[in-house]
Amino acid sequence: MAIEVQKYIDLITSEYYNNPKFTTMTRKILEKDYGSTSILEHMWDYFNLDNAVGAQLDIVGQYLNIKRELPIDDDILPDVLPDNLYRLVLKARVLQYHWDGTIEGIYKMTQELLPTALIWLQDNQNGSYNMLLMSPDFDEQLSELFILGYITPKPAGIKVVYTLFERPFFAWDRNDQYYKGWDESVWL
Is the pTM of this model over 0.90? Predict the structure, then answer.
């Protein structure tokens, strides 16, 4: 801290530098303010959703109006979300607030939240759409959050039918984590 303050003391012009009262006053003001500016510089690190844990996530959740205790009674989800699931729900809410309302926006949002997921949207042209999702990384809890609508946006007045596939899709001449042959896949 002394080095940072001295950097600013050295900027005092020669007219005032030899005045000890001015230099002392300037040093005391800088030392007092340096602590608060240091905290402000690191505030992003403290509340960055990728790094935040525990109480930090809870504070972000207060601003986003999402509690760890979801207002549902579910056998699969815990009563209080652990940090990894709570972080995902908070990120989803932030992305939903910035969503532009387009289908492309849903694709981008889902890819950011679930990078290994494969997603299809089918517009039924009747005020509803189907969302099909397949990911090798899904577990029961993540699947439940998806189906309950905590991860992807749901436009007001639009019905969304969520479908999760835990097994790869059937495909000819492809064999990867999303597409397999006859005996290892499901038909779409």
Answer: no
